[in-house]
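Re: your question from the hallway

Yes, I did run it. Sequences:
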Amino acid sequence: MAAPEQRRIIFAHINEPGYSNDISCYVRHGGYEVLKKAVTRKPEELIEEVKKSGLRGRGGAGFPCGVKWGLVDRKSGKPIYLIVNADESEPGTFKDRYIMHQDPHQLIEGTMISCFANNVKQAYIYIRGEMPHGARILEKAIAEARAAGFVGQNILGTGYSCEIYVHRGAGAYICGEETGLIESLEGKRANPRIKPPYFPAVLGLYQCPTIVNNVETLCHVKYIVEHGGEAFTKLGTPNNTGTRIFCVSGHVQRPGYYEFEAGKITLGQLLNEVCGGPLPGRKFKAVIPGGSSAKILRFGETFTLKNKDGSTRTLAVEDIPMDFDTLAACGTMGGSGGVIVMDDTVNMVEALANINAFYSHESCGQCTPCREGSLWMKKITTRMVHGNARTEDAALLKSVADQIPGRTICAFGEACSWPTQSFLAKFGDEFKGYAEAKPTKPAPATPLI
Amino acid sequence: MNLKPATLQKIDEVITHYPVKRSATLPLLHLIQEDLGYVPEKAEEWIAAKLEIQPINVYEVVTFYPMFRRKPIGRRHIKVCRTLSCALMGGYKTCEQFEQEFNTHRGEVSPNGEVTVDFVECLASCGTAPVVMIDDDLHEKVDCAKAKQLSEQIKAEAKKR
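Structure:
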């Protein structure tokens, strides 16, 4: 079956010739019209539209945005904060970068609509430290929006005021975790907070109710308020509404970003048709479908899933529709939309060693199982790659990985153990045979560690 | 500490962005590092006084975030992405190329003081791997040939100084 056409809503103007990131260009393309209408409506109506839309967070967890907003404590008498999570750091993910660099006003409009809906007076955009140009572009865009009356005091003459500031991170992946991000914004180490009691909706920034939303999510809010929650549910598939931006990297002919209706395209269509298939003379071996912490899929494996009527269906990796629910049923996740492809030239022990080096570097160090476990997984896989593999390594790795998830304050524990668990489950033979096979292996042409 | 007047002005401005002064810790560290090239120990004390917190509160932040450095580096900072998508497309070879070009090892200042080459984790541009940041600028699809070309550019700019 031929792949569907892209449906560009959020990326409508990305890489469009002649489209610039200044406000005059945005306004020329109908920009800020949705905000103008939104501020004449009741905030509760806007929240209702977002709830109706079924929008699920695009940062990784896929938590329904309307539910998140519904949890905000509005009776505390304390100010409500909104933080834009622009700390795009999950390996394999590179969508928010383009929105912020090329279409920053789309994000600012979505943010202001969300602030108005939730009676927020102060918002922060927490952007990765490694995007200094992005931060400057956003600051310039906010200044333009302020001058035009879309941000700041007495917005569009309604009496409603809300300020946005850009706050730069400094290279720590854990700041993508919302409570870690809040700690960081308070000027501290980004050690995530324990939940309960520190649910951001109740005890967030400065112990005030706080909403943390991903860049792409807030852009979707703008679309939803413009077209209605109902219209948004017509895009995508039930429970996986709207579009999704897939970031494809690694061993395909045409890596890049592609926006499709959620669940309307299969993994096989995305990789073979949209991205042009494997590199010449190579075959796909494995794919990580939702950012590097998502569990890996092996080409050739099949999944038997239950249908609603009780019958079952069998899917190959290529048949999996790219939505949150089917990927979860296949034991992995849609996560942040970062699809990393590996072909038959890749040594899976080396690939895992690369991933483990990332997670051990990024563990905040506050929970022992994660701090020690991520480090030992790195040490073991690195040692294996460097010719010191032992027969018991596969079992040892599994034992370490199995002792981390569920025993940590935040989901980093899961994120760092899922790669090891899934690589062993899917490619166990490569790990088990490593101690014996290693001495005959030539040095890799493309080292991964 | 000899901070430029423009830096001092930005520092006073950015503190007003937050209802709690301590929140300005990261912005102040960025501003000082941009001005001085690194964060000297004196700066930790200076920021602590400015934000009415303890020096340890600044120290623990400086040592947590990979972007802050407590020692000077080379005039130019070459940051090669090490993470999976870039590694799959040859990121390790790219890093080696830069090391050779400047006769240095990653994490060290090159003998002529011109560059520091570092491996960094995912730069969120995986579709154009391997990627490299030179100071504030992102460079895409940096294979060995492009690494060589960028190095020559840096060397030529150094000669002009």
